Structure formats: structure tokens, C-alpha cells
Amino acid sequence: MNSWLAKGTLAVAIALPTLNGTQIPVLGQSMQQQREQEQQGIEGVWDVRITFVRCDTGAAIGTGPRAMIMYIDGGGLTSVSTNSRQSASVGTWHHLRERSYTAVDRIFLFNADGSFRGSEAITRDIELSRDGDEYTATATSEAFDPADN
What we know:
By secondary structure, this protein is mainly beta. It contains one helix and nine strands, in the order E-H-E-E-E-E-E-E-E-E. The chain has one helix spanning 31-38; strands at residues 2-11, 44-53, 60-63, 67-72, 76-81, 89-97, 100-110, 116-128, 134-144. Strands 1-2-4-5-6-7-8-9 form an eight-stranded antiparallel barrel. A hairpin with a 5-residue loop joins strand 8 and strand 9. The longest helix has 8 residues, at 31-38. It is globular, with a radius of gyration of 16 Å.
């Protein structure tokens, strides 16, 4: 089982994401609108950075591709990644309590020659920061061959 930590940064649909954890306001947005956006929880578009860690020690062992994950009102999610050997993903998310969430999505995987390699289901346990601008997630993945084994 693979495990990684993801750090997400909230961005808005019409603005570019930041690099290290700052929410980007929309130009012309009032302070009241920005405060309301901060209170929306996990909903929105997040710029995600992935750090792979050892399950047994928690030690960082590398970084992964960047991703943009959109948590949609009503519990849907979709994401795209800089990894050219995987599709965009689709899935669902749920609010658990306070600043805790869970999300599950699935991607298709491809070999270097473009042939279908299988799929991967990713489950994230997410903790939103107090200010709502960042989150940290522990994710696990399950790999499936083309026959879903």
C-alpha cells in the first residue's frame, strides 16, 4: 500500500493557484465575499503538492506530481495531475466533523506507449487548517489491473 501526504492550497477558479499555502482572492471581490469564501470549508479548487512517506516511520522519501483538485458543492470531486500517465479523476468527498473530511476518487493509468495499465483508487483523510487556506491529507491508494483485480 502506498501512502502519501498532500498539502492543498485553496485557489479560485478564475485565479492562478499560489505556491505555498495562501488563498488567492478574486480581483474585485469584497472583504465580505472573501470571508464567506474562507468559511466554505473544503469546497473549491486546491493546488496540491504530494510528499511520499514511509508508512512505518512517517519519514519523507520523495515528492510526487502536482495536482489540482476541485471539491464540488454536494460531495463530488475531480482532479487533474501533472502526471501524463494518468487520467483526470472523479470521486466523492464527505464532511466528517469540524475540519475533518474524507474523499475517494479513481484514475485510469497508462503505460509509456499509451496502453491501458489499470486504475487506482485513492482515499484521502483530510484535515483543513483553522483559516481554511490549507489542508493536510493522508492518502492511501489501491492499484487495479485492467481486469480490476
